[in-house]
Every structure is written in C-alpha cells, then in structure tokens.
Design brief:
The complex is a heterodimer of chains A (291) and B (431). Chain A is built from 14 helices and nine strands. Chain A is α/β, with parallel strands linked by helices. In chain A, β6 and β7 form a beta hairpin. In chain A, α10 packs across α11, α10 packs across α12 and α11 packs across α14. The longest helix of chain A has 21 residues. Chain A is elongated, with a radius of gyration of 24 Å. Chain A starts with a helix and ends with a helix. Chain B has 431 residues and is an alpha/beta fold. Chain B has three domains: 77 residues; 277 residues, 3-Layer(aba) Sandwich (Rossmann fold), CATH 3.40.50.410; 32 residues, no CATH class. Helices cover 39% and strands 11% of the residues of chain B. Chain B has a six-stranded mixed beta sheet, with helices on both faces. A three-stranded antiparallel beta sheet of chain B has the order 2-4-3. In chain B, β6 and β7 form a beta hairpin. In chain B, α2 runs antiparallel to α3. Chain B is flat. Classes of the chains: A alpha/beta (291), B alpha/beta (431).
Chain lengths: 291, 431
C-alpha cells in the first residue's frame, strides 16, 4: 500500500522532516511510478535527509552510494575478493585439483557494493545516490544503463537481474551539468531554502527542547544572512547546528555575546563573517530590544 | 507495481489526460522542454497517483515529471498557471520566455540564471536577421563619443596610450545592444592550432581515478588475477593501473562591452576552436548582464560564421566587470573546479566598483587551477596595468597577458608555460 501524498507528508512531519507539497508529491511518484528522482538544490537544504526519511517512512533499508571524483563502476557495483581467490587457487594447487573459471568466479568471491546490494534486496530499498555531480560522465553513463535495465552484468558471472527495484533518489549540488539523458530518465525536483515559517517548524520539531523565542530569532537571523552575497550561504543544517549550539550554551534568546560565541556554527568563511557583521549586529540589537 | 485507488472524480481523467498531453506539447514547442511520449505517459500515470482535486498536487506531479532543471521550474509554473486556470481554458498570451534573456538585476537565490540546458539554445530555430559584421576593422569612424572621452581622459582611470585605429575598432558603434551578432569563420585552422598549443601548455598533473594502463604505478589485481587463472594461478603477465593526465577545463569569460567589439569576436572564435579541441569549455559573456554562451558555441558548425542571437545586455552595452565576475563566482561556482583554467578577456575599462573585481577573482582563484586575464590593451606598446579593474585584479591573477590578435593567441600556450600555471596541480608522478 502506497501512502497518498498527504499521508506521506504527515509521516515525514512525524519524523521531523517538513516536506512541502511539491517534494511530497515527487516522492509519492518515486514510489508510484518507479522512476528515480533527481533532487537538486543548494547545499544543506535536506536533500539527503529526504531520502533517509523516505526509507524510514516506507520501513525499508536505505542504501547509500556517496559519489566522488574518481568513483568507478567497480567500487559502486561489485568487487572480486582477490585475496580469497588467490588462496583458493593455491589451496587447489596443493590438492592437485584443476581450477576453472566457474570455481573462481562464483558468488563466494563476489563482494557486492551499494548498487548491486540495492537490486538484490528482497524488498525495494531506498537507494540514495548522493552528489552524483561529483562523479564523472563515464560513471553517469554507466548509471543510466542500470536505471534503464535494472540488471547488472558481471562479465565472469553473467547478468544479475534485479530481485526488487529500489526507489532511487539522486542528489546533486550542480557542480557539474548533468547529461540530458540522465535528467530525462528521472523525475525532477528543485529543493529551495525553506520559508521562514517552514524553517521555524523544522527547528522546533528537530530540537524539541528549544525556547520558541530563540528558535524564531535564529531563523530570522539566518534568513537575513541568506539575503547577503555570502561565499557560503548557510543551509538548514547550519540553522539546526546553530540553534543546537545556542541551546547547549543555555541561551534563551539571541544576544550579541551568544551570537559572537556561536557564529562559527553558521558562517564558515572568514570573509563571510566580516561581511555579515553589520547585519548580525542589527539582528542582535533587534532581538534585545524585543526580548 | 501496486497502484493505489484512483482518487479523482470519475470521468475527469479522460478529459484531463487530453489536456495534459496538450500542455506537454505546449511546453515542448514553446520552451524546448525535452518531452517525448514517455514523459507524457509518465505524466498520465502520475495523475492516477495524486489527488486530482488538489491543484497543488496536480502541479507538483506534473512538474516532477515534465521538468528537468531549475530554470524550467519557473517556466513550468507560469505555463501551468496560464493553462490550468479555471476550467482549463488555455490563455494564449504568455510570451515564450527566451532562455538567454534572464532578468539582469534580480539576484537569483537558487544559484543559476543564465544557464539553460544545451538543448534549448543549441539550435536556435529562429535565426535572427544577420547584423553587419561587428568586427569589421575598417568601419567608418562615425561618432565616437566614448572614444573621445577615452582619448583625452589621460588622467582618468581609463586613460592609457593607444593608437587611433585600435580605438576606432574598439568603440565600433556597429555593436549596439539588441542586435544579433555574427562572427565570421575566419582562420579556423590557425585558431585550432592555437587552441591545441594552449591545451598542451597546461600541465595539471594526473587524475585521481586509476585506469588500466600499459604501464602504471599500481598493480591491477583484478586483471592480473584474471590472466593468472589461465596460467594455473601464476601471475605471468602483470597488469597495471595508473593515473592518466588530467585534461584542463576552460572557463572563458568574455567582455562583450562595446569597447571590446573586435577582440571579443576574435575570442569568441577562439572559444569555438578551443571547444572543438577540448569539449570541456564553458563560455560566458558579460557586459551589463551575464549570459552563458556555451550552448551556442556547442551548436555552431565549425568553419561556418558564428551567429549568436540577440544577447541582450550581455553584448554591446557598458561594462560592469566586478558585478558580473562576482555573480559568476557565486552563482556558477559549480563550473569552477581544480581542473578549471579561468580565462577572462577584458580591457578592464569598467564603470563598476573595482573592489568587487578583487573579491570575485579571489573567490575564483581559490577554486580554480588558475586565473588568467587577457587584455587587448596589454598588446599595445608601453602598456601599464593602471585601469581600476585591472589594478584591483592584479594581485589575484596568475598572469596578465596581451590578446591583441591571432599572434597573441598563438603565443598564449608558451606564455602560460612561462608563467608556470601549475599551481593547482598535484606533483607529477615519477614515471
């Protein structure tokens, strides 16, 4: 039974993830249409978290493939256990037996990596292919083949068809333009920074112990910061970090002192801290006036 | 795949299905969305999965299926609102939004404005009328208000020694805003050689990814073992993995302002040649606004005159170097990585804030393999880098090189090698 969009949204909410209508609908379609979803957006808006929460909601496994420069098919699909193969060869030699390819390239020696794992799960897993833009074109092309055919060919072993089709979520920070072919194969959702009210909701549901005044001040400050031309714009993750830092310092509102002490949680470039200083002073003054 | 019960009103889907198909066709025709029968089928299947009575769910579902990029999202919303307004009456008057005319002043929070997937610009089906060739060096002087200002403005920031004919070409009034731009094919062979020279000159060290190579630094256990199985487990033939050389990426930023007319056209042709040689070239043009030209360069046929559609405020207007470079550094940061060599072509005659230039270049330099400024003015004898923008840029540049003509482009590779542009490179492997 696939939950309806609103049920899905409620389930996400219950797990502390505030999903907008569009995202909830897109996730609903991932499950319903069996197509992969490409999530793009600035860093720290909860793209990865969406996949994790989906796995939690569906009560299935999350299998994650973190992409990086130089990722190749071997480390994403499967690897042969060479050491074990060598031992096997030596042992067979000592026993005076002949070793054929069939013995050497069997399931015993195969080490599945995330993609192979995902299609061999008995129950559809959530496959998170994180930061696909960091992998190169060659890997993208290879991924296309998997997403189209749902099978993996191991030259020595033959073709391994999917036991179940995973729900695939790809995320990208747009550090590289993805190919049209990949985009076509996927559903698409652009994740934006949440609105002020949404972000407040996120902070309150993620940090249950937080004082509401503080939560409001933190989200207001972060929104003011996002309007600045910063080198690294703070994401939702930074908002949560910052709020958590303030909570752990037992601050119940945002003042100049607390702000100064915890600035590193939200602005992580020296230039940004200098650039934002006037804005933050204003924020602190405002908060104090109101508090 | 299990489908949940249909949750719309009975009877609506048939009518709605036809509408969705029409809507998809409209997106494809007007805005060049990549929508085929497969996407339409998925859209129709998606209708069965959402609550059709909820407009937001309907829009979310169609958007997820039919769009493929952030810039398409906005077009989609506009079209959706126009099309599915009360009773599904199509509202025809929405003008097709050209992908290459982004709103210039609006700071874009989601980190993109000018880039549109290649397909939409690759083959502009409405070729604009051919404008007179802007780089014609022999264009009659006409009125040269800027030129005069420059020539007697020795004490101003823009003043430097330059001879009249260069000046004439530089302020060519033929390149006015709002015209299609046509760049002659010129000497493509020569430019290709220059491009090859440039690519060869850049040493970026080696890639991280291990590839099977005839001779490498690491034993390829997989292939060695595979081969060994044939020889009864003895590894007779060793197989190797190594790291191939890293190919450089290029980010060309062309100053399309009026003062750059002839040199801008030359560099556009050079960008095309570079693209033919490397395929890892991004081209942006700026004057008052910033526009990504890569799709146009990609779509152009080699050897043919390069025709660019009206570039709006990216070509032929004034100059705001700092602002546009900063926008490039911030919004298009994804296009710059450790393999990227940033080439900026500009004369540095700027009307904006020079401090912005410094900030943008510091940002770009930190993330790229190198930043090189090519200035046509630097080719004139006795040149001193005193223009405000150049002076602000100088501390953040790996090299400031002349780009007065094809000869300078040919020398580019050699000069870059002399400037030792290998800062971002990893130490070369020993073999």
């Amino acid at each position: 039974m696939i939950p309806a969009v609103q049920e899905l949204q409620a389930a996400f909410q219950a797990r502390g993830y505030v999903a907008g209508d569009a995202l909830a609908t897109a996730l609903r379609l991932v499950v319903g249409l069996g197509k992969p979803l490409l999530l793009e957006g600035p860093a720290g808006v909860g793209k990865t978290e969406a996949a994790k929460t989906l796995a939690d909601v569906l009560g299935t496994r999350l299998i994650r493939l973190q992409c990086y420069e130089g990722l190749d098919a071997q480390s994403a699909l499967y690897e042969w256990n060479y050491a074990r193969q060598l031992l096997h060869l030596r042992a067979a030699e000592l026993r005076g037996e002949a070793v054929g390819d069939d013995d050497l390239y069997g399931e015993t020696f195969l080490m599945p990596r995330p993609l192979l794992q995902a299609i061999r799960e008995p129950r559809s897993a959530v496959l998170l292919i994180d930061e696909i833009d960091r992998a190169d074109d060659a890997f993208e092309a290879f991924l296309l083949e998997l997403l189209a055919e749902w099978q993996i060919t191991v030259p020595e072993l033959g073709t391994l068809p999917a036991v179940s089709r995973p729900h695939v979520i790809l995320t990208s920070n747009r550090s590289r333009e993805l190919s049209d072919a990949l985009r076509r194969r996927c559903l698409y959702h652009w994740t934006e920074y949440p609105s002020r009210a949404q972000e407040l909701q996120i902070v309150l549901s993620r940090l249950p112990g937080i004082n509401e005044t503080l939560a409001r001040q933190v989200t207001d400050a972060v929104h003011a910061l996002r309007a600045l031309p910063l080198g690294k714009t703070p994401g939702v993750a930074e908002t949560l970090d910052w709020a958590a830092a303030l909570v752990s310092l037992h601050a119940d509102h945002l003042d100049a002192e607390a702000l100064h002490a915890t600035l590193g949680a939200v602005l992580k470039l020296r230039e940004d801290q200098l650039l934002a200083a006037p804005t933050l002073q204003g924020v602190a003054a405002q908060a104090q006036a109101r508090g | 795949m299990a489908e949940s019960g249909r949750s719309g009103v009975a009877g609506a889907p048939a009518a709605l299905a036809a509408q969705v198909a029409t809507f998809a066709g409209r997106l494809r025709r007007r805005h060049g969305f990549l929508i085929g029968p497969g996407e339409v089928r998925d859209a129709l299947r998606a209708l069965e999965l959402v609550d059709l009575l909820s407009r937001r769910e309907l829009r979310g579902a169609l958007r997820a299926v039919l769009t493929a990029g952030p810039e398409q999202g906005r077009l989609f919303d506009l079209e959706f609102n126009a099309f599915f307004r009360a009773g599904g009456q199509p509202q025809p008057e929405l003008p097709p939004l050209l992908p290459e005319t982004p709103a210039p002043a609006e700071p874009d929070p989601d980190g993109d404005q000018a880039d549109q997937p290649d397909r939409e610009q690759g083959k502009p089906d409405t070729r604009p009328e051919q404008a007179p060739s802007p780089q014609a060096g022999s264009d009659p002087g006409g009125d040269l208000p800027d030129g005069e200002a420059l020539q007697d403005g020795q004490e101003s920031d823009e003043g430097d020694e330059q001879d009249a004919p260069v000046m004439q070409a530089r302020v060519s009034p033929n390149v006015a805003p709002g015209e299609a731009l046509r760049v002659d094919a010129g000497d493509l062979g020569g430019l290709l050689r220059a491009a090859t020279g440039l690519i060869r000159a850049l040493e970026l060290g080696r890639a991280r990814r291990l590839r099977p190579l005839p001779r490498g630094s690491k034993l390829d256990a997989r292939r060695t073992l595979h081969a060994a199985a044939r020889t009864a487990g003895d590894a007779v033939h060793l197989r190797w993995l190594g790291r191939p050389r890293r190919a450089p990426r290029f980010l060309l930023v062309l100053d399309g302002s009026r003062s750059m007319g002839r040199d801008g056209a030359l560099l556009l042709r050079f960008a095309q040649a570079l693209h033919l040689r490397s395929r890892r070239v991004e081209v942006y043009a700026f004057s008052t606004g910033l526009t990504r030209l890569t799709p146009l360069i990609r779509g152009a046929a080699p050897g043919q005159p390069l025709t660019l559609p009206d570039l709006g405020d990216a070509w032929g207007g004034g100059t705001r170097i700092g602002e546009n470079l900063l926008r490039l550094a911030r919004d298009e940061r994804g296009r710059v990585n450790r393999d990227t060599v940033v080439l900026i072509l500009s004369d540095g005659l700027d009307t904006g804030d020079p401090a912005l230039v410094g900030r943008a270049l510091r940002d770009l330099r930190r993330r790229s393999a190198g930043v090189v400024w090519l200035s046509p003015l630097a080719a004139t004898p006795g040149y001193r880098p005193v223009q405000r923008a150049i002076a602000a840029a100088l501390p953040h540049l790996d090299a400031l090189l002349p780009a007065g003509g094809p000869d300078d482009l040919h020398a580019l590779g050699r000069r870059l090698r002399a400037a030792r542009l290998t800062r971002g490179a990893s130490p070369r492997d020993a073999h």
